[in-house]
Amino acid sequence: MLMTRQEFESLIIKANLNDADNDELFAITAQAIASLETLKLYDGESNE
Amino acid sequence: MNNGDNNNSLELTRELVKSGARSAEQIASEYLGRINASGDNCFISVLDAMAQARDIDDKARSGFDGKLLGAVVAIKDNMRYIGSVTTCGSAILTDKDTEDCEVVKRLKAAGAVIVGKTNMDEFAMGSSNATSAYGNVLNPLDRTRVPGGSSGGSAAAVASGLCMAALGSDTGGSIRQPASYCGVVGLKPTLGSIDGSGMYALSQDMDQIGPITKTVDENRLMFEVLSGKAMEKAEVKGLTVGLVREFEHWYTEDTKRVIQRAKEVLSSIGCRFVEVSLPSADAAFATYRALGNTQSANNLRNIGTAQERTDKLGIEVKKRILIGEYVLAHPEIAERAKRVKNKIISEFAKAFNLCDIIVSPSAPSVAFKFTDDRNNKEIVYSDIFTQPPSIAGLPALSVPCVKGESGLPIGVQLVGKKNAENVLFEIGKLFE
Asked: Domain for residue B323, yes or no?
C-alpha cells in the first residue's frame, strides 16, 4: 500500500487540515500506511 | 500515608475517616501538597478536592460510608468532570464539562476525593506521554525516562504517591505499559465491564477504563467499585498457564527473566505450563492501526476548524486521523483487518481451551529514555504483548515482576478469560 502525494493531499482535505505542504506528516503517514500491508500476510492473501 | 502492614491504602483510609481518627480534608490536603511540590508534570488540572473532602467529612459524620471513603483518586484527563475542561492532552479542547462521566459518578458515590486529572498522550495516541500538549510527564523512577502512555500521568502519579489510585484508559496497552514502566499495578478489564460513558473515545470497540494502583488488593477494590461486581475468591492452585510461542522472538534477556520469574512463582502453587499459539499475534499492531484509527478519525471529525486543527493538533494525532481516512477510502483494508481481528479472537479461544491464564511480559523493555531513538524496535512495538488481548476484549493485569536494565521494573502481564478478573487478582498477588 503506497500513498501518493496526491492521495495525501486528498486525505488532508477529508481530515479538515491545512497540512498539504507538511513533508514530515506525509513521510510518517506514508510509512504507517505501508505497514498495513502486514494484514495481507495474516489474511491469507500474501500471494495476491 | 504510612500503611503499616496493610497493603490497601484505600481500606486504611476508609477506616481512619470512618472512625474520625483522620478527616478526608486532612488527607486530601496532604496529597495536594505533594502534587504542588512535584515537578513530574503528572497532572493537567487539579480539582476542587478540598471542597469534596469537606463534603465527605460532613456526610461521614452523618453516617455515610463508602468503599472509597476519603480515598484520594486521580482520573485521566479524557474523562469528564463537571466544571473542568477535559483536554485529552490536547490544546484544541477548551470547553468546560457540563456533567460527570459515569466512572466519576461511581467514584463520588463510593466516597472518593477526585484530586485531579492526569496528563496523557494527546487523545490517548501514544506510548510515551510525549505527545501531550501539556508537556512530558517524567517517570518518577528515573526522570530521564518516559512514564509510558497513554495513561502515563496516572501511572506516574500513583508511583510517586500523588494519589492512592488513578484511572487510566487502555485501547492497546495504555494502562498496562505505563504500569510496567512505572512499577505499579494496572488492569485492563474485560471489554465493556466498566461503563465508559462520558469518556472521550479513541476507539470505542477497544477502549476500556481501568484502575492503576500500587497494590493488587487496591486494584481489586477499585475494580469492584467501578464495575459494580463483587470479586469472588478464585482457586488458582494447579492452574494451567499458557506461554505464547509467537511472543518468544520478541524476548530480550530482561523479558526472559519475566517468564522465568513467572515459572518460579506459579510452579510453587502447583501450576503447570503449556505452550499455546497465537499465530496472528504479530498482526495485532496493524489490525489495531486500521480499525482503531478509522474510529478515531470519525470521533475527531467535528472538533475545531481546519485552521484550529492544523495549528493545535499534534503530528501523531494528525497521522492517525489520516490513516483512518485512508482506511475509510479503502474499505477492503477494514474488511481485511476485521477478518484478522476475528482470527485473533479465535486463536485466543483455542488457547484458552488448553490453559486457564496466559502469561507474558507487559512490555518488551524497561521505560525508554526521552532521548532514545524512537525507531528502536522496543519503542515502536512497546505494545506488542498488550495489543492482542485488547483486540480480543480480554482482561489483562500488569504487576511489577522483575528489575531490568538500570534496575527499572518490567511487569508481568496476566491475561484471563472474559470476566475472570478475580483469577488475575489472585495470581497477581503472588508476584508482590
From this structure: no
In a domain, B211, yes or no: yes
Q: Answer yes or no: is A48 within a domain.
A: no
Q: Which domain holds residue A29?
A: 5-42
The answer to whether residue B76 is catalytic is yes
Please give the grid coordinates belonging to residue B149.
502512555
Q: How many domains does chain A have?
A: 1
User: Which pTM was predicted?
Assistant: 0.97
Q: Is B362 a catalytic site residue? A: no
Residue B63 CB partners (closer than 8 Å, separation 6+): none
pLDDT in tens, B302-339: 999 999 999 999 999 999 999 999 999 999 999 999 99
- Residue B336: other Cβ atoms inside 10 A: 23
A34 and chain B in contact, CB less than 8 A:
no
CB contact under 8 A, A18 and B337: no
Our count of domains for chain B comes to: 1
Residue with grid cell 494484514, as numbered in its chain: A39
Residue type, B287: T
Of B309, B323, B336, which has the smallest distance from its Cβ to A33's Cβ?
Answer: B323
For residue B289, which residues of chain A lie inside 8 Å, CB to CB? 32, 35-36
Task: State whether B325 and A3 contact (CB < 8 Å).
Answer: no
Q: Would the ipTM clear 0.90, i.e. be above it?
A: yes
Could you tell me if B196 and B208 are in contact, meaning their C-beta atoms sit under 8 angstroms apart?
Answer: yes
Question: Looking at the domain assignment, is residue B205 inside a domain?
Answer: yes
Residue at B187 is within a domain: yes
Whether A33 has its CB under 8 Å from any CB of chain B: the answer is yes
For B58, the domain range is 9-227
Give the H or E element holding residue B251.
none
